[in-house]
Amino acid sequence: EKGGYDHFMLKEIYEQPRAYRDTMRGRVSEDGRSVVLPELSITAEQLRAVSRVHIVACGTAMHAGMVGKTVIERLARIPVEVDVASEYRYRSPIITKDTLVIVVSQSGETADTLAALREAKRCGARVLAITNVVGSSVAREADDVIITLAGPEIAVASTKAYSTMLVAFFLLGLYMAQTLGTQEEAEIAHILAAMDALPEQVERILAQADTVKGIAESIAKSSSLFFIGRGIDYAVALEGSLKLKEISYIHSEAYAAGELKHGTLALIEDGVPVIALLTQEDLFEKTVSNIKEVKARGAEVLGLVNEGHEAESAKSVDRQFAIPRTLPLLTPALSVIPLQLLSYYASLALGHDVDKPRNLAKSVTVE
Ligand code: M6R
């Protein structure tokens, strides 16, 4: 059942190229120039009336939602807020009839996410669900559903569900943009072509799993480490940090790179590993200055960079791992892969139960 892999998590990491293809299949027009989402019942008129979007989810699904916020804001120019589902109801969110609430849940059964969905509907908002499970509670109760075609995810640590949630957000962001007319048709076609290349690019990263394994084995000796990044790199840093904590039990924190000097820098001492995500080239110099701050305090920096940018980043990091080049907005679909592998191999090196980490359940059905 593990298809020859030692663990479900590893199998599911390797299924991601297939999962990307399946999640895109049938959702792009034949000429490759537009997104088709026949499953949506929301009309163009209703979509044009949406004045704000709330994305509500837990854990890894919430991290996918943070990327979704950037995608929707950049492509469709609608303001988006992201909330942790367990907090949403209690902050008296301003939910009006022109609010679109997007709930994201692999299982479709997470209690807090379901409660948020019900609250949103009670307030008269339309709810769109992104979920991996057809017929789940979330799928049944939402007005619209985009199913991710990751296939069953068994490992507690979510991998292929996260990455297909990203694909769902890319498709939805493009769909909103084409409906609202906020992007040129050529730009939409350009992004779709870049998405088409993602599965093969993921395969190229997976082919370097041994390199990541080596890095993981050295990191596994640390008692604490940090992930830093700016913009969507920060969203991916949060996901990388959660994954590592969840299965390797190594303490880690993810920080928006520019926030370090507002307190956290005090924790950086000799030999502390810092994983710096540097995929957003317009923010590169800014993040490099934050790398200098941690290096001055003795940190060992691993840079996650774009191919072709290695010579530039070699000047500031100790080690680096390069991911294939894609559009800035799509990088999370690639940068998360080495981070998943990193946590897998760190957990393995420490002898933990990768698929069933302590204290955690696959589906959290209590609030
Ligand atoms: O099924 P859901 O997507 O609603 O689950 C949400 C979280 O419980 C889940 O993503 C959790 O954070 C993962 N175990 C992280 O790997």
From TrEMBL:
The keyword Transferase applies. GO terms for biological process: carbohydrate metabolic process; fructose 6-phosphate metabolic process; protein N-linked glycosylation; UDP-N-acetylglucosamine metabolic process. It is found in: Cytoplasm. Coiled coil: none annotated. One of its GO terms (molecular function) is glutamine-fructose-6-phosphate transaminase (isomerizing) activity. The keyword tRNA-binding does not apply. It catalyses: D-fructose 6-phosphate + L-glutamine = D-glucosamine 6-phosphate + L-glutamate. Residues 43-182, 215-357 form the SIS domain. Keywords: Aminotransferase, Cytoplasm, Glutamine amidotransferase, Repeat, Transferase. Its main location: cytoplasm. It comes from the Bacteria. Its EC number is 2.6.1.16. GO terms for cellular component: cytosol. The active site is at K362 (for fru-6p isomerization activity). Catalyzes the first step in hexosamine metabolism, converting fructose-6P into glucosamine-6P using glutamine as a nitrogen source. Homodimer. This is Glutamine--fructose-6-phosphate aminotransferase [isomerizing]. It comes from Cohnella rhizosphaerae. The lineage of its organism: Bacteria, Bacillati, Bacillota, Bacilli, Bacillales.
